[in-house]
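lol forgot to send this yesterday, sorry. struct tokens for the thing we talked abt
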């Protein structure tokens, strides 16, 4: 016979699994595919009552849309009371296909969208296609190599961001130290980081441990079914 404590623990886990499944289903339902295959392949997403068409480049790792971006976009749209992006200065790291940048722009933010040089062409295409004529501010798409000349490209004295957005920027690549330094440079006392991450291997866990040495960290979503967690972070005093 189960003890009351064991039963309570089991019930809590079941409730958590149900919440996870429902939220994950709502997030993944944002994606749709064209009913007819045209000349150009694209995937569709619905955010802020707007249809967003995203073109991927499957030959480039950074130009493929990963589920963490959808998790972050869902959070931004459904939590506008607490995280109002209207007229806020926002930067996205590792913007990839541009979905997070596009959604943040639709929600009223002034977005600087950054990634590696070989990703920028597809990123610029998606951003302009989905924000022109729809947004108060057209995002600025610019090259940013983590750790290299960040101060020259984005001086702290003139580039103060309210939010840093990042989705799936941590995985088994050799530039995790440079990414940490870039977070550190861009995050000022009033800046909040919203960061969605898919946990795959040990590098993700060790990065989080090192990250917490410099930043406070609060988990906003935990989605085991997608292996994704969403964090809010801010600089330690």
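and heres what i got for the seq, position by position
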């Amino acid at each position: 016979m189960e003890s009351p404590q064991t039963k309570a623990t089991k019930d809590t886990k079941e409730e958590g699994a149900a919440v996870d499944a429902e939220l994950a289903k709502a997030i993944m339902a944002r994606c749709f595919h064209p009913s007819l295959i045209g000349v150009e392949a694209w995937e569709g997403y619905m955010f802020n009552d707007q249809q967003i068409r995203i073109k991927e480049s499957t030959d480039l790792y950074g130009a493929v849309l990963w589920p963490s971006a959808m998790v972050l976009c869902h959070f931004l749209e459904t939590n506008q009371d607490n995280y109002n992006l209207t007229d806020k200065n926002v930067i996205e790291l590792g913007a990839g296909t541009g979905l997070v940048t596009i959604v943040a722009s639709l929600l009223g933010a002034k977005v600087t969208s950054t990634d590696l040089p070989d990703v920028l062409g597809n990123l610029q295409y998606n951003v302009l296609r989905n924000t022109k004529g729809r947004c108060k501010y057209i995002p600025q798409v610019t090259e940013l190599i983590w750790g290299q000349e960040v101060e020259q490209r984005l001086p702290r004295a003139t580039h103060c961001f309210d939010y840093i957005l990042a989705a799936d920027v941590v995985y088994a690549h050799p530039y995790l130290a440079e990414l940490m330094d870039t977070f550190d440079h861009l995050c000022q006392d009033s800046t909040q980081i919203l960061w969605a991450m898919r946990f795959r291997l040990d590098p993700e866990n060790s990065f989080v441990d090192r990250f917490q040495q410099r930043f406070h960290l609060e988990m906003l979503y935990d989605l085991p079914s997608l292996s994704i967690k969403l964090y809010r972070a801010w600089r330690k005093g």
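Helices lie at 4-28, 67-78, 99-106, 120-131, 150-153, 176-186, 202-214. anyway ping me if u want another try
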